[in-house]
Amino acid sequence: MASVGARAFSFSRTRWGASSHRYVRDKRPRALVVERQSEYAIDYDLMFNKFGFRSLFTTIPGEAGRAVSEDEDIAVVLIDADTVDLRRCLTVLQRMRPLKLIVVAGPDAEIDEEYPCDVRLVRKPLVIRELEKEVAYL
Q: Which residues fall within 8 angstroms of residue 98, CB to CB, at 6 or more apart?
């Protein structure tokens, strides 16, 4: 099975599906978003862009691990626990270099309070201002 890998995608920098800066190397730090068809994807991208990060998106923990190991510019990882397996993501990412992790989860999601690493938890329904506060504190 072929792997797609992390997708560099920015809603804020896209016009009709084509990036306006596709030939310029972006030197901003990167934020990796691990989610699968979340309704908040555009909000995540816009928020990280506001704080000076370029967003990368993956859909499974293995892709997230590969992206972190191949890209030294990834500084923050946001995991949408409602759309991907949180435990597996944390297991993969704890083997990597130290990262700042944010977990977004719905109110009915069962999440252990004991994490293998330092994690900030934000509950849905998501108020973007609360998520922005967590990113600002990183």
A: 117
Q: What is the pTM of this model?
A: 0.77
DSSP 9: -
Going by C-alpha positions, the residue among 10, 82, 84 that lies closest to residue 47 is 10
Distances (CA, A) of 45 to 20, 50, 99, 131: 16, 9, 18, 12
pLDDT reported for residue 126: 79
Q: Provide the 3-class DSSP secondary structure of residue 43.
A: helix
Q: Is 73 exposed, middle or buried (0-12, 13-18, 19+ CB in 10 A)?
A: middle
Radius of gyration of the chain from Cα atoms?
14
